[in-house]
Structures are given as C-alpha cells and as structure tokens.
Specification:
Elements: H1 2-11, H2 17-30, H3 39-49, H4 52-85, H5 97-103, H6 120-133, H7 135-141, H8 144-164, H9 171-190, H10 199-205, E1 211-214, E2 221-225, H11 227-236
Antiparallel strand pairs: 1-2
Helix pairs in contact: 1-7, 2-4, 3-6, 4-6, 4-8, 6-9, 7-9, 8-9, 9-11
Length: about 240
C-alpha cells in the first residue's frame, strides 16, 4: 500500500513550474559568497524564501544539483589525474571516502566552486533545513530515495573534506554537518521503508573523535564536533 499512499499524496500537489523556476533563480543569484552577510543569516533568509510545496521541490532540486555537480567535478579531477600521472581512481557516489584517502592531497574539494553557484553554507544549508523541517510532506512531493541519497552524499563530501581535503572546520561547516544529520534522520523517519545506511555513514559512526571547530573570521577554536557521536543516536535509534 506504500505506493498507493504516495500516489494519493502526490496527487494533492499542484506544482507551479514558473514559481519554482523563479524561486530557484532568486536563491541562486541573491545569496552566496559574494555577499558580505554571514552565512548563517543567509541560510535563514533562504529557508524563509523556500515555502510551500514549490519551495520543497526547489530545495530537493538544489540538493540534487549540488550532488550531481560535485560528482561530475570529482570525475573531471580524476580524469585529469589519470592524464597527468597514469594513476586510476574510482569515483563512487555511495562512498567517496576511499577516493579521498587515496588521492585527497591531489583533489580540490568541489563544494565551494560548483558551476551552479550554490554555496554549501548558504543555499545548501537552507535546502537541507527546509527538507528536514517538512520531511513528512517532502516524501509525498518528491521521490525520497534519491533525495536521501543526495543528503548522504553531501555529508560524505563534507566529512571527507575535513579529513582529507584541507577544508577547515568552522562554525558554518559544523552547522551544515549537523543539519545534514538531522535531515537524514527526519527523512528516514518519514519513509515507510528507508534504505540501509551507506558505507561512509557506517564508517563515521564507528568513530569517536572530536574535531576542533573554528570561528569563521578568526584563527580561534570555539567548539568541537564529534560526527560519530552525532550520527549514532540520530540514525540508529
């Protein structure tokens, strides 16, 4: 009966493609690294913009676009490495950690420079928040399986960037990670039959190390984050 309930839920949706496109272009061009506004404030503003079912569709689309472009960017980097060095690496969307362990010193973390222009700490953080806050509705508006996969992909890339990609863990990055974990929990709770946790999440769950979190504007530690301690109660309960 799962398919029937989902069908009933989706029949209630009356999408407005024109409004969705307007919302998408608004958040793409009005927010980002070019603004002298803290990312936390930008994320809150984008969250308010992405209201209603159209906002949910746009939020899911932002996560899909970011995950797809990050995957394409890593493929291009790996192809360039092979051209220069003859070394082969596997780009696996379900688990980026082996790639980063082997080639992290030669890779550029892709989430800061995607062609779509979405910034991980502004539009992406907002999209994740919108999806999580309305998870029972979003699973009726869009297909939740690829959406959850995209959430886990961005979390995987975030953690790998910290560990292998020389990405400094600041307050905005830690906030993104916490939002991703919370949204993954909320999506799984809203799904009738959530999939198994992907390998990088299971690997991170076995960790118990705390990472220093820096002030974005200064070389000063202000807190810490333990991804394993955050993931275990969120996704194993």
């Amino acid at each position: 009966m799962r398919w029937f309930r989902q069908l009933l839920g989706r029949r209630q949706v009356q999408p407005d493609p024109a409004r969705q496109q307007a919302l998408l272009q608004d958040v793409r061009h009005r927010f980002g690294a070019h603004l002298r506004v803290p990312f936390a404030e930008q994320a809150e503003a984008v969250t308010r913009v992405l209201d209603g079912d159209d906002g949910l569709v746009v939020a899911a689309g932002i996560l899909r676009e970011v995950a797809d472009e990050a995957h394409a960017a890593l493929h291009a980097q790996v192809a360039e490495l092979f051209r220069r060095t003859g070394r082969r690496f596997i780009v696996n969307r379900r688990n980026y950690r082996p790639l980063w362990r082997e080639a992290g010193a030669e890779l550029r973390w892709p989430l800061f420079t995607l062609p779509c222009g979405f910034h991980p700490y502004a539009q992406v953080a907002a999209a994740v928040t919108v999806v999580g806050a309305r998870a029972p509705r979003v699973v009726r508006v869009v297909d939740p399986m690829p959406l959850l996969a995209h959430v886990f992909e961005v979390l995987d890339l975030t953690a790998a960037g910290w560990e292998y990609g020389r990405v400094r863990v600041d307050v905005d990055g830690a906030s993104l990670a916490n939002r991703l974990i919370s949204t993954a929990r909320q999506l799984r709770a809203a799904m009738d039959d959530p999939p198994r946790l992907p390998p990088p999440v299971r690997e991170l769950m076995r960790r118990n190390n705390t990472i220093d979190v820096y002030d974005p504007a200064a070389d000063r530690v202000v807190s810490g984050i333990n991804l394993g301690a955050e993931l275990r109660p969120a996704l194993l309960s």
